[in-house]
Amino acid sequence: MSDYDTNDSMLELYLFESTTLLEQLDEILLQSEHDKNLSQDNINEIFRTMHTIKGSSAMMSFNIIAEVSHKLEDLFFIVRDRGGVDEDYFEVLFDLVLRVSDFLKTEVDKIQQGEELSDEKPPLVDEILNLIAAMKGGEAEAAKPAAKAGSKAGKKSEGKAGAKAGAKAGSKAEAPAPERAEDDAPAELLEGESMFRLHVYFTEDCQMENIRAFMLVSKLQTMGEVLRIIPDDLEGNPEAADIIKERGFFCTFVTALSRDEVEANAKATLSVDTVSFVDLLPDEEAPAADDAPPAPAQAQTPERAPDRPAEAPAEAPAPPAEAPKAQASAPKAADGDKSEHKPTKQNLINVDLNKLDVLMNLVGELVITESMVSGSPDLAGLELENFHKAARQLRKLTDEIQDTVMSVRMMPVATTFQKMRRIVRDMGKQLDKEVELTLEGESTEVDKTIIDALGDPLMHLVRNAMDHAIELKADRANTSKPPVGSIVLSAQNVGGDILISVSDDGKGLDAEYIIAKARDRGLLTKPESEYSEKEIFNLLMLPGFSTKEQVTEFSGRGVGMDVVKKNIEKIGGIVTIESVKGRGTTVYFKIPLTLAIIASMEIEAGGNTYAIPIVNIRESFKAAESQLLSDPDGNEMIMIRGAAYPIIRLHRIFNIDGCIENVVDGILLLVDSGDRLACILADKLLGKHQVVVKPLPSYLSHYDVKSTGIAGCTILGDGSISLILDVPRILTQY
């Protein structure tokens, strides 16, 4: 176990790439299991994934991760060698690999949290070894005949290539595989093989070029045999990254692939900018005109500068008399090549979310300052045509900057949606239910903060659908529904909000059963006959409510829908439930695109300004005396189109003086939060504005200000502060 620094840039790269690879691994496995077929391409991709994780983990001294990845790589070497997986082992293989994926994710998460990794070998290693032994059928030597050495270029990936190119970059975790014999000189290439010398440049801003080169070598080893690399010590040489940055990375590679395939695979590696082919490596000498033998110094290498096959014509031959200069001028020699490939450069970088938060805050300050300048009271009554023209241009540019910065924070919901496939797969096996998960609108983009908050609510809903809604196979067979159940996750833009839904074609909700359970638990607040179907369904979101008769590992403890509601309301969203008994249930999340800037209605009460999010407002109106009434407890109510709603006076909540007392003289705003509706009384409306949400000062937390119904604050154009009302909390408490 290494003493790692969670702020180290190399560690950040390791965590990012390992997490990305493990997510891709899950996608490949789940799709292959769904298709009942593990293609050769997917086998190779899983092999490369494990090889990369093994190598980078060994280099970072995360030995447990490297060991488990190494054993799984061995397993897929066997699978690849046999051309696929036997039907007898198909299900066992997928269960095991998914558990390995879970283990690796847990260990990577420990590293991210700064926790110590275990030094004990996990039981998964023995399970992998047992499966390897079972697949080999006890014939441990079956894969070693020399006749197979040239049958597949990929089978040599772990031989002397690993010993030479990766010895100082994590080769201690290399998998055993067929090797090229010591006297098998590259000049005597096997049938169908070619040898290439690659000269690679990485993108200028990628950093840690030595690790990038190591990743490239790991990928090439899965397609052939890497004989030499320059620089030859990617881990131990502290100057390796600078050398690669200045002169490029060189390697000699033997493979059965064509030149175009080698170039395409190399360019597909993360951060590779250009790939060119050369006659000689920088430290090699070209044969003399009289065909003199190469210099004795080269005898130590397996290459000996052989004649290159006809399939690999030189692009940039190195002048024999100026080998040292050729090395120093390598970047210039590749300039033409770099310009040719500019259009294919991947212009993506990873940015710390904290930096984006700071940038968003600065843009918010810019928006506020622009409003303060344009709305300055010192300008009142002045005819300043040029100023107002410049102010309009400033507003336009400010809006564009705001939109651009917000778009940078946007991420598609695809990653969060894809994680639900694993839940459906695992629960389907444990509950013996066949369920098809369909994803719609995966490209819909939402703010990164909201994406992070969606994971748990979606997980709860998918688990509920699997456990509560979808019938058992025997029960479903007695209905007219298809034998395979269906769960649909959908996301779409609706106005300025995102609508996310989780639907199933299960047994639906039983309103009578739900209200009976609520009655037994003492959760009803009015006569049963007065509850609408929507209100009955909303009882499911009360704390401690559960319709599950028995507690299982999935549900039955009364925790779930209330957590879903709280989490969605924290990000400014609302939850609604629709269901038809016997046909299915749909749960909707309506959430804002971003939490940083919201549309709000500014109101005034007692000389103070408050902001109410537009998403919570249904309508605003003047009340008539004939609409006012009181309930049996003496609470003020107003009748609107046959429905009675309570009236909430802000001056009573916040102890404000000077407010309008007569409801008829003020303005009422009908607001909602899920199933709760009420009318808030205001002195007057000031207009609709886009406001930048600012958190309340930390010292106010001692006074529990948020519990009174204040969600945050914003600064208005005139420099004054407006409090943002927390409508869900106000409706709950008052």
Report on this structure:
This protein folds into five domains: 1-139, Four Helix Bundle (Hemerythrin (Met), subunit A); 151-284 and 307-338, Alpha-Beta Plaits (2-Layer Sandwich); 353-409, Helix Hairpins (Orthogonal Bundle), CATH 1.10.287; 411-592, 2-Layer Sandwich (Heat Shock Protein 90), CATH 3.30.565.10; 597-733, OB fold (Dihydrolipoamide Acetyltransferase, E2P). The chain has 734 residues and is an alpha+beta fold. Helix 2 runs antiparallel to helix 7. Mean pLDDT is 76; it is low at 138-187 and 289-346. It has 22 helices and 22 strands.
Brief summary of the model shown:
With 734 residues, this protein is an alpha+beta fold. The protein is flat and about 100 Å long.
